[in-house]
């Protein structure tokens, strides 16, 4: 049986500013191969967006168009580009064993493909050296929702299969330049909700959707919520698989790292014990987790996803199916909350992903369904996290699982995501 390795990712600010809680457990209550760490993402962390040759990512464009509820942007963020040494010191002083960060594709390769930016290369080398020389395990996310704007302009980013080749070449640079010191590679972040947030409800960059599926009161001007989320996720899966194969063929024997992918997870409790709700809960898991993990573990989408989405779902040719099957060494998950799920019979008209699931959900048993209601507080659910880890382990081949983000998500902004 594979051990369940876990990285608990806490935001640095939480570690540093939060009052010390009284804990009823110690490090020795956890297995030795359990890993505690913290994490950041490039756009939320680095700042220095126009320094030293970095070009804009789709998030620079998105925030500068005023799309954040509070009109904020990542121009300065945590200024990690300049202050990374202070942050590594916090990691060390907190006795954390691992640190995960993401690489800004448009900082390392400003044209999306081709020439490497020497200043970008130097920054990541310095950061990795700072971690490695202090014995901190280095976990890298290759791209955390922020591909270069230049590729968005050229061919629509994740909507084009052309991105598979460019992503693979970018990953190749990362493996070649940094792989001697990196133990864990995660190709992409929250593939499932990245596809939904970006292309179904249009809430995150590049903010595409079609009416009436926009988030909240968003008026959708460009996009197609019925098909684009499926196309984007399909290309992300092919890009992941291509990069992983490259790593295995060219680097893994020497560098001895592992490669995984990250999905956003919500544990699904059935709202009632009716057969319809029990099936809806399984369908919810098949859509939110299986959509991404089944192709990577077994070579194809779950049958209920194929059935409900029909011809809008891209299919894998036989050679693609063989190329993607078995391309994860571990599953990375983010888990903030659990939901109560009930059956919502499949609607006949135009559908998006949310309607394709044919289920409603809510964060508390007594709430109306999300969609009709934005929850104001979202309870953390450690038991749901445990059930999710057990479920994924059993359903997807007992792979190691890393909890890459978790915590309590009760802020107004988080709640307003619904
Ligand atoms: C979305 O794409 C589908 C399939 O190509 C098409 O039938 C539908 O009209 C498109 N919807 C919009 C809003 O463009
Ligand atoms: C459903 O059945 C399980 C197992 O018997 C029980 O624990 C749970 O409380 C039931 N849920 C509801 C909503 O009745």
Fold and architecture overview:
The chain is an alpha/beta fold. The protein has a single domain (about 35-270, about 300-335, about 380-415), classed as TIM Barrel, CATH 3.20.20.80. The protein is built from 17 helices and nine strands. Strand 1, helix 1 (about 10-15) and strand 2 (about 35-40) form a beta-alpha-beta unit. It is globular. Mean pLDDT is about 90; it is low at about 1-20 and about 410-418. The protein binds 2-acetamido-2-deoxy-beta-D-glucopyranose (2 copies). One 2-acetamido-2-deoxy-beta-D-glucopyranose binds near residues 272 and 273. InterPro entries: GH, GH_1_N_CS, Glyco_hydro_1. Homo- and heterodimer. This is 4-hydroxy-7-methoxy-3-oxo-3,4-dihydro-2H-1,4-benzoxazin-2-yl glucosidebeta-D-glucosidase.
Give a short summary of the structure:
The chain is α/β, with parallel strands linked by helices and 418 residues long. The chain has helices at 12-17, 42-45, 58-64, 80-93, 105-108, 118-133, 149-155, 162-178, 191-199, 228-250, 252-255, 275-298, 303-309, 318-324, 353-356, 382-395, 412-416; strands at residues 7-10, 35-39, 98-102, 137-143, 184-188, 258-270, 330-343, 359-362, 401-406. Strands 1, 2, 3, 4, 5, 6, 7, 8 and 9 form a nine-stranded mixed beta sheet that branches.
SSE blueprint and pairings:
Blueprint: E1 7-10, H1 12-17, E2 35-39, H2 42-45, H3 58-64, H4 80-93, E3 98-102, H5 105-108, H6 118-133, E4 137-143, H7 149-155, H8 162-178, E5 184-188, H9 191-199, H10 228-250, H11 252-255, E6 258-270, H12 275-298, H13 303-309, H14 318-324, E7 330-343, H15 353-356, E8 359-362, H16 382-395, E9 401-406, H17 412-416
Parallel strand pairs: 1-2, 2-3, 3-4, 4-5, 5-6, 6-7, 7-9
Antiparallel strand pairs: 7-8
Helix pairs in contact: 4-6, 8-10, 9-10
The chain binds 2-acetamido-2-deoxy-beta-D-glucopyranose (2 copies).
Keywords: Disulfide bond, Glycosidase, Hydrolase, Signal
Family: Belongs to the glycosyl hydrolase 1 family.
InterPro entries: GH (IPR017853), GH_1_N_CS (IPR033132), Glyco_hydro_1 (IPR001360)
